[in-house]
Fold this sequence. Notes:
This protein is α/β, with parallel strands linked by helices and 264 residues long. The chain has a single domain, classed as Rossmann fold, CATH 3.40.50. The protein contains 10 helices and 8 strands. β2 (27-32), α2 and β3 (54-58) form a beta-alpha-beta unit.
Amino acid sequence: xxxxxxxxxxxxxxxxxxxxxxxxxxxxxxxxxxxxxxxxxxxxxxxxxxxxxxxxxxxxxxxxxxxxxxxxxxxxxxxxxxxxxxxxxxxxxxxxxxxxxxxxxxxxxxxxxxxxxxxxxxxxxxxxxxxxxxxxxxxxxxxxxxxxxxxxxxxxxxxxxxxxxxxxxxxxxxxxxxxxxxxxxxxxxxxxxxxxxxxxxxxxxxxxxxxxxxxxxxxxxxxxxxxxxxxxxxxxxxxxxxxxxxxxxxxxxxxxxxxxxxxx
Length: 264
């Protein structure tokens, strides 16, 4: 049985995936921003799955200082993490920037998973076959390093697409840098019926289960044991080419360098 951490798992495909995994008897570590909502989701997941190995961690991923206490708690309570699913994401928000003046899309969709994953490498290293699954999107656009650093204003759509490409570029970089990790970027499906999609577009193409099903498969199936450094496009139901920038070493180097500067 695996120990699986899923960020943003109090609703949407994160929650559906958590329930599917808990039903199989895995140790499921939920994450949410709101403690009450998280406690309710833990109770609901335990009840539906009849599995008591469900716990939760609170952190506001838009606030870097909130992420470190969660990492400390995980490190003291969990002996190993087999799979980390960086699922939490934001599109629309009542606030456009965090307290550091950075665009919220970049912070939650890219910086937070970057920071969390790097800090959790000691726990992932204790697994016999650790996986990191990063939730990308069909929406990907060339990253403006000025926008990344909060020095350029973007539209919501543009910031979202750039944040998802940044995440995908870093996924490929991580797979090269940390050889023992199996890192997969995935577009779970376009316009799935989730709260984020409904708030952003007011319509959907597919049920949220489509996204949860592929996350479940990528988490547990041996079929994906050697898929590190690949991009799974669930609109096609197969591995596919990501945005061209993902394969440009010069752009990845600049992105990682700028990211480390900003986080420092």
